[in-house]
Design a protein that fits this description.
Layout (H helix, E strand, L loop, with lengths): L2 E3 L12 E3 L4 E4 L8 H12 L5 H12 L5 H14 L1 E3 L6 H11 L7 H14 L4 H8 L8 E4 L5 H17 L2 E8 L4 H10 L3 E5 L4 E6 L8 H15 L5 E11 L2 E10 L14 E2 L5 E3 L4 E3 L2 E3 L3 E5 L2 E8 L4 H13 L4 E7 L11 E3 L4 H25 L14 H10 L3 H11 L3 H7 L3 E5 L2 E5 L1
Parallel strand pairs: 3-10, 16-17, 17-18
Antiparallel strand pairs: 1-4, 2-3, 4-5, 6-8, 6-9, 7-8, 9-10, 11-12, 12-15, 13-14, 15-16, 19-20
């Protein structure tokens, strides 16, 4: 039996609950324990309708909306519960297969009920089932036909705070620009912004630190995708303290667009769901989110994830094309300091993978990353063992020393993996750029990164 579970999406703007002031500001109306009756009524309705279809539940929700002062709140709470609930198909048969079987046999819809029953009985026999099961399964993949199986352990407190969180995100999806003020430079926040691909600039002084972040409606393309990533950043921001946010929000009323100021600070955290920044991803090679920072040249560098491979901790950095060159330099410097670090670049549709980057489309794929890192770690171990046997490192530490044919052959085997070639020459004690050019390779610099060409 197939089931669907609600995904993370943001409220439609029609469910936004705000107050506008004459001075051009808006504020979000939060739910609190004082109006928890909205939550209790909505939760009870769902609990009483376990086993019913979504269309039946939506019909009863409309009746409840007529009984309350603010029906938008019921709509919003119900949307959250549907996302969190476990919905199952009403039948055991594959709906697409059932429809294809029926439509391949019946070209013209039956006019009489008797003819319809005859067709369904015939189809049931062919599918080794019964007529009622065929009827239940025929359109079981449509959302309205899905059956509510469970709403889990949803509490009124969680529902209230989840509702408040989505209200904030919905407002910020209409933002043109955001100014985030934080007490001091926070490397974790910066890394989150970069890994999500949000556009930002930093404005710092001795007593303040400001991040200017572009809002979704300032994007010419893919504003919805950008907005979804901004929502993820806002959820992350709620796990920090000592910050203030000012944004310019554009709302439409009666066909007219008006700009408003929308402000938040860390005092809103008490209205939001709790979040722990350090998470483990079970089933994905024990990836750890937000690992400890790495001290480097008086700065602390924060990886996005880490993973243990063969008792070695590998620090992982997620980046987007606009930040790849800069983040690659950070990772390269960490590697030179003896830290194990890898970088992955996430692409949106139609974006091109930067040269030398290990790219993934859409989101970071933990399983693919783990497979890649384990294979690379194994290959590096084999190469290291081979180098130790063939050429002792201490005999090749002088730049002017004649280059062994074995070194030349190994570089040829590594080509076109520029990074592997550079790392190998570093390991052997040669200056990479000079040695490669001496051997007839062309060297092209990309910031601090070398691309080896023939």
């Amino acid at each position: 039996m197939v089931h669907q579970e609600g995904g993370e999406r943001v409220f439609p703007v029609q469910l936004m609950t705000i107050r506008r002031s004459k001075n051009g500001t808006i504020r979000t109306i939060f739910l609190t324990s004082e109006n928890s009756d909205y939550c209790s009524q909505t939760l009870n309705l769902f609990k009483e309708n376990i086993g019913n279809s979504r269309s039946e539940i939506e019909g009863k929700l409309k009746i409840l909306e007529l009984k309350v002062q603010n029906p938008k709140v019921i709509k919003g709470l119900a949307l959250i519960i549907f996302r969190e609930a476990r919905m199952v198909t009403p039948g055991e048969l594959d709906p697409v297969m059932v429809r294809n079987t029926i439509f391949s046999k019946v070209r013209i819809p039956p006019i009489s009920e008797e003819t319809r029953n005859e067709i369904l009985v015939s189809m049931a026999e062919e599918l080794h089932s019964d007529k009622d099961e065929v009827i239940r399964s025929m359109y079981g993949d449509l959302e309205r036909e899905q059956i509510l199986s469970s709403i889990g352990n949803l509490s009124e407190d969680y529902l209230i705070k989840k509702y408040n969180q989505e209200q904030v995100e919905t407002v910020l999806l209409k933002s043109k620009s955001i100014e985030l003020y934080i007490k001091q430079v926070n490397g974790r926040l910066i890394r989150k912004i970069r890994s999500l691909g949000l556009l930002y600039t930093e404005v710092s002084s001795e007593d303040s630190h400001k991040l200017e972040i572009s809002g979704p409606i300032s994007m010419e393309k893919h504003s919805e995708r950008y907005g979804a990533r901004l929502a993820l950043f806002v959820r992350y921001l709620f796990s920090f303290s000592e910050w203030k946010l000012d944004s310019t929000v554009v709302l439409t009323s009666s066909g007219k667009k008006t700009e408003y100021r929308y402000s938040l600070d860390d005092s809103v955290i008490e209205y939001m769901p709790p979040r722990n920044r350090s998470d483990s991803f079970s089933g994905n090679g024990a990836f750890v989110s937000d690992p400890e920072g790495i001290e480097m040249t008086k700065n602390i560098i924060y990886p996005d994830y880490s993973i243990k491979v063969n008792d070695t901790t590998i620090n992982i950095f997620i980046t987007r094309p606009p930040y790849f060159e800069e983040d690659f330099s950070i990772v390269h410097n960490l590697q030179k300091e003896g830290h194990r670090a890898e970088i992955f670049c996430i692409l949106d549709p139609q974006e091109k993978c930067p040269k030398g980057a290990h790219c993934m489309k859409g989101t970071f794929n933990f399983r693919d990353a783990e497979d890649y890192l384990r294979e690379k770690n194994t290959n590096e171990k084999k190469r290291s063992e081979k180098r130790t046997i063939v050429i002792p490192v201490q005999e090749n530490h002088l730049t002017g020393k004649e280059i062994s044919p074995v070194v030349i052959k190994h570089l040829s085997d590594l080509f076109p993996d520029s990074q592997a070639m550079v790392d190998y020459l570093d390991f052997m004690g040669f200056l990479p750029a000079e040695t490669l050019e001496k051997l007839g390779y062309r060297v092209k610099w990309h910031g601090l990164r070398i691309e080896v060409l023939k």
